[in-house]
C-alpha cells in the first residue's frame, strides 16, 4: 500500500495511475466529442452517415456485445455496451499510453501530441477498419475525421495532465 507522497504512489502503481488517467481522459474525450461535433457541417455529417453508421467508438461496444451474446441487443443493452466499451477503452489505452510514455518520454511533450496523432491513426485508420467497425479514413469525410483526431488529442492531453498532477509529488 502506498504511503507518503503522490510520487511514491506513481512509482509503486504506475499501471493503476495510467488506467485511472485513461478513464478520466475518456470522460474528457466524450465532452470534446459533443463540443467538436457542433463544428462538423450537416453536409459532412450526412456524407459520413452514408459510409458508416456512427464513429467506431460508438458502434464497437454494441457490436462486440451482440457477438458475445449471439443476438441483437435492445436499446438499453446497446447503451450499456457503449458504456462498458468506454470504460474498457479508457483502461486499456490508459495502460498502453502510460507504459509508452514511461519508455519513450518524448511522447509526453507538448501535452502528449506525439502520442495523440499516432493514437488517432492507429485507432481510426487501422484498428477500427481492421475490425470492421468503420471504413478506412479515405472514405470518411474530412470534418468528422478531424473531429475524431480532436477527440484523441483531448484524450491524450487529459491523460497527460493526470500523470503530471499525480507525479508532482516526486
From TrEMBL:
The keyword Transmembrane helix applies. The keyword Transmembrane helix applies. Keywords: Membrane, Transmembrane, Transmembrane helix. The chain crosses the membrane at residues 15-36, 81-100, 112-131. This is DUF1440 domain-containing protein. It comes from Geomonas terrae.
Amino acid at each position: 500500500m502506498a504511503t507518503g507522497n503522490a510520487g511514491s504512489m506513481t512509482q509503486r502503481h504506475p499501471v493503476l495511475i495510467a488506467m485511472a488517467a485513461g478513464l478520466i481522459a475518456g470522460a474528457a474525450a466524450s465532452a470534446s466529442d459533443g463540443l467538436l461535433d457542433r463544428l462538423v457541417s450537416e453536409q459532412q455529417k450526412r456524407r459520413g452517415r452514408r459510409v458508416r453508421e456512427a464513429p467506431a467508438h460508438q458502434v464497437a461496444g454494441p457490436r462486440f456485445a451482440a457477438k458475445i451474446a449471439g443476438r441483437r441487443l435492445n436499446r438499453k443493452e446497446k447503451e450499456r455496451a457503449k458504456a462498458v466499451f468506454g470504460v474498457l477503452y479508457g483502461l486499456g489505452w490508459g495502460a498502453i499510453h502510460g507504459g509508452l510514455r514511461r519508455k519513450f518520454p518524448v511522447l509526453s511533450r507538448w501535452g502528449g501530441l506525439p502520442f495523440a496523432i499516432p493514437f488517432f491513426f492507429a485507432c481510426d485508420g487501422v484498428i477500427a477498419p481492421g475490425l470492421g467497425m468503420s471504413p478506412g479514413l479515405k472514405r470518411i469525410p474530412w470534418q468528422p475525421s478531424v473531429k475524431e483526431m480532436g477527440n484523441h488529442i483531448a484524450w491524450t492531453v487529459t491523460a497527460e495532465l493526470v500523470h503530471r498532477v499525480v507525479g508532482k509529488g516526486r
